[in-house]
Amino acid sequence: EFEADLSALFFTNASFNDLMKKIYVLLVVGASFMMSACSDFLDREPLTTPNSETFLSNASAVNNYINGLYIALPSFGTYDMGVRGEEKNSDNIVAEVYDKRLNGELQENGGGTTEWQKGYQNLRNVNYFFEYYKVPETEETKDVLSMKGEAYFFRAYWHFYLLTRFGSIPVMDRFWDGNATVGGLQIPPRDRSAVAQFILDDLNTAKGLLHSRSQYKGLRVCKEAAIIMAMRVALYEGTWEKYHKGTDFAAAEDKSADLLGQVLTLGDELFGMGLALNTKATDKNAVNIEDAYAHIFNSKDLSDMTEVVFWKKYSIADGVIHNLSSNLGAGYVDNSGPAGLSQSLVDNYLNADGTPINPADGIFKDFNLTFKGRDGRLLATVMHSNCKFKSTSPESKSKAMLVEEYSEENKQIVRPPYLTEGGPARNATGYHIRMSIDTTYVSGQGETSLPVIRYAEALLAYAEAAEELGKCTPAVLEKTLKPLRERAGVTYKDPSEIDPNFTDFGYTISANLQEIRRERRAELALQGFRLDDLMRWRAHKLIQGKRGTGAYFGTDGVLYKAFDPKNAADLKTILTTDGWLDPQKELLPRGYQFDANRDYLLPVPPSEISLNHELKQNPGWQRK
Q1: Cβ atoms of residues 289 and 489 within 8 Å
Q2: Taking CA atoms, which of 73, 233, 424, 520 is between 20 and 30 Å from 264?
């Protein structure tokens, strides 16, 4: 029965509800979502149905309850871009509806309320499981114990969600409903190092209980996913403590060396577990240099890609779909308004021969030459000439974006970026998203799968931790960066010199670290990592006074000439003085006004502080 339910896992509210109705657990989850955080416990309605003492006492009930915990994980939206459009909170996406945190516009009241409530709501749901788990020891099969491991993973996941946003927090290590009094709510936060170690301990417990990826082909949280998640946590906190040392955001004690060492220990364990990157040699459908990378994101079934240790499946037949395909087909980058991928992201990618580009080179004024002879991941991530992307009906199969000089003869085939569209379909930079495009070009209903945790992340984490510890030998880079670059058709070269055109973080970094950070941005683009990376690296110099730009749009450029000259006057474009698209020029005339003394963490909701007097507001948020 457990295996038969796999087709409905991780999945949609509809599929979850069908399962829950069988045993009335919907009442429990419905009640639990009424709880937001500590303050809401005082208004809590009692959990009377079903009987909590016997509810989670068999494998079927455990299975159904754990399945419900998957719903809150990142996904592609039913109506929006979901994960693929998140990175307008960083320098990867330029959006007219810009990120308020980057511009220092958040307020103490409301600035972090949604995130605080989301984190603690989900922790309460997980801890309900631990409180009422009553499966007899004699019935604790490997499947049941693996599901228990999933619960530990989820508790770690949501604590990490809160750590990245608020730093030191109260750890919800048990079901807090018994604390529903003012006195019971006085729970002190733990220092961020202690929070991180609690998360790592939960993931270590999960690792010991979980099945390996092979058991469910990545459709459930697995042992390998727990290890990679632990590497993510240890790398995040280790680098945060290193780069924020001596600031108001520092941990009470710098444990960065220990945490970074844990990344290496975990990585050494993972490397022996048989995972492998998806490459042209292993991918029978790969033809072009970008295909092995692209297929991770535009495929429907990732069961046989061991690189993807945990993923979410979508299927029209099963009624589990997303709207990303329609949004991408319409040219959306951000469904709330015009947006586009940044020139900075495009410039990050290497040439195929392994050398960095010089963004000032005149060839990059030509939209087509921008993509010629470059890293295959650029081609898989960003729309360029001859890429098909209008996929709303079978008739649109053959249509592709072409950027060439407009003429009466070719006007039926020239399809430049959507700079003249209305609303969120209007591209602000000239660069559309190609990642996750459904290459069948048949239906607007989305079936492309969502990779959640990948082996590639572990390779990058290992290389970065090794370099931060002074242990990044050529051998380390050859087993981490080299296979990632070669998979993307890039000749691997051992880093030896600083690229003077590389991203300026406001402090000096080594040639090795420069290439590791470059590789991380290229490999993990549009997957929800970039903001966390900028925050842990203390990269405010990259944000302050800056705003993203787009492709060259001078009248002498091919991109401008791709538009019908009769309609050129209708182009609503704002340019830099030298002709590059600058969509935020009027919105952010001084660039982003990120406050480095405040905006690295969100404000703790004042309503929580008024109830739990052990809480303190994060630095910079209390204005006198």
Answers
A1: yes
A2: 73
Output the pTM of the full model: 0.92
User: What's the CA gap between 145 and 163, in Å, rounded?
Assistant: 27
134, 56 contact by CB (below 8 A) = yes
Closest Cα partner for 127 from 207, 47, 193, 189? Answer: 47
- Residue-wise pLDDT tens digits, 362-407: 999 999 999 999 999 999 999 999 888 765 444 445 568 889 989 9
The two tokens of residue 274 are 């048989």
Nearest of 443, 448, 417, 411 to residue 430 by alpha carbon: 417
Among residues 233, 232, 225, 228, the alpha carbon closest in space to that of 209 is found at: 225
- Nearest to residue 415, comparing CAs of 308, 329, 351? 329
Intra-chain end-to-end CA distance of the chain, in Å:
60
Q: What 3-state DSSP class applies to 443?
A: coil
Phi, psi of 310, deg, nearest 5: -150, 125
- Using DSSP's 3-state secondary structure scheme, residue 301 falls into coil
For 620: left if phi > 0, alpha if psi spans -120 to 50, otherwise beta; the answer is: left
> Which residue, 147, 540, 586, is CA-closest to 338?
586
**Chain Cα centroid distance, residue 209:** 26
pLDDT tens digits for 567-617? 766 677 899 999 999 999 999 999 999 999 999 999 999 999 999 999 999
171: left (phi over 0), alpha (psi -120 to 50) or beta: beta
List, as own/partner pairs, every contact residues 492-495 make where C-beta atoms lie below 8 angstroms and the sequence separation is at least 24, other chains included.
492/354, 493/354, 493/355
Residue 589, phi-psi category: left (phi > 0), alpha (psi -120 to 50), beta (remainder):
alpha
Q: Which of 117, 198, 164 is nearest to 618 (CA)?
A: 164
| Side chain identity, residue 314 | Y
- Angle among Cα 239, 244, 248 to the nearest 5 degrees reads 145
Give the closest residue to 536 by CA, choosing from 191, 249, 265.
249
151: nearest Cα among 229, 223, 221 = 221
Minimal CA–CA distance to 317: which of 80, 15, 620, 4?
Answer: 15
Helix (H, G, I), strand (E, B) or coil at 575: strand
The residue count of the chain comes to 624
